[in-house]
Amino acid sequence: MSKKMPYFMIAFAAGMWGMIGFFVKGLSDAGFSAMEIVAIRVVTAAAILIIIGFSFYRNQMKVKLKDMHLFIGTGIFSIVFFNWCYFTAINLMNIPVAVALLYTSPAFVAILSFLFLKESINKKKLFAILLTIVGCTLAAGITSQRGESFSAVSILIGLGAGFGYALYSIFGKVALGKYQPFTVTMYTFIVASLALVPATGIFGKTSILLENETLLYAFGLGIFPTVLAYFAYSWGLERTESSTAAVVATLEPVVATMLGVMVYGDRLGFWQSAGSLLIVASVLAVNISLPERNQKKHFTL
After folding, report:
1. Is 25 helix (H, G, I), strand (E, B) or coil?
2. Does the first or last residue of the chain, that is N or C, have fewer Cβ atoms within 10 Å of its Cβ?
3. What is the rounded CA–CA span in Å between residue 287 and residue 2?
4. Dihedral pair phi/psi, residue 248, rounded to 5°
């Protein structure tokens, strides 16, 4: 297997995540709220993964009860928490600033990986993280918001989105020391579903959800930027460092920007272009002179 393959899989996952706006827009037009769309995403993904598991991966469907805290970490502390923070930040501030704060996640991953996974923070990684943060800030257009101030609470909630997003890499890395990528992905969405369904009451809109076009958006959301993306990311994460994987995954806003320009006619300004280029540069930075040592280890948390 090529040493580049884990990075390709992570980049593929980021590309799928970057397309999420297409499905979210379709479901929003159908009348679903932001958190209801999150619930649709995780429930659809969980159902698909359970079917795939019984069909092809029965030997990977068992987990130990003592390890459930890892899936609570990936499912609730990461998936549910970061989505709540992200959508709340959008309401309190605006989308560009919320996106910029969300993509502080590589910095959080680097710090948490250093503290809990004993991963090193070298100059190249620090440089890549810096490029990522600056690039995401520019790509989100935060430089055009001069003179606009936001409350400390809204900024903290926005940073909470980045922190929650980062937790998947941390809890996921530990879980992958014990289970296969499919197992981690499936239980992540099962746990997230168990938390979100009662909270959103999504089944109260079953009649709308069962309409043909809505079903296509729901299944598309559950398969492409969810099941395929998280499986690919977990597979790549198992074979590389959490902090490096998080930086490569920041290709997502670049793909999202391209989708907006090509499909929805959004205009890409100078700062957005510069930010996208910096994000690509950060990905290239972590791919130069890849470490030779075997990264597959067992961890405890």
Report:
1. helix
2. N
3. 13
4. -60, -35
Write the burial class of residue 85 (CB in 10 Å: 0-12 exposed, 13-18 middle, 19+ buried): buried
pLDDT in tens, 55-90: 999 999 999 999 999 999 999 999 889 878 887 787
- Of residues 168 and 287, the one with the higher pLDDT is 168
Element (H, E) at 198: helix 181-200
In this structure, what token pair is assigned to residue 261? 């320009």
**First CA to last CA across the chain, in angstroms?**
30
CA distance 203 to 205: 5
Length of the chain in terms of residues written: 301
C-alpha 246/C-alpha 81 separation (Å) is: 18
Whole-angstrom distance, CA of residue 134 vs CA of residue 127: 11
**54-63 own/partner pairs: CB under 8 Å, 24+ apart:** 57/180, 57/182, 57/183, 60/179, 60/180, 60/182, 60/183, 61/183, 61/186, 63/179, 63/183, 63/187
**Rounded to a whole number, what is the largest CA-CA distance in the chain?**
57
Eight-class DSSP state of 240: S
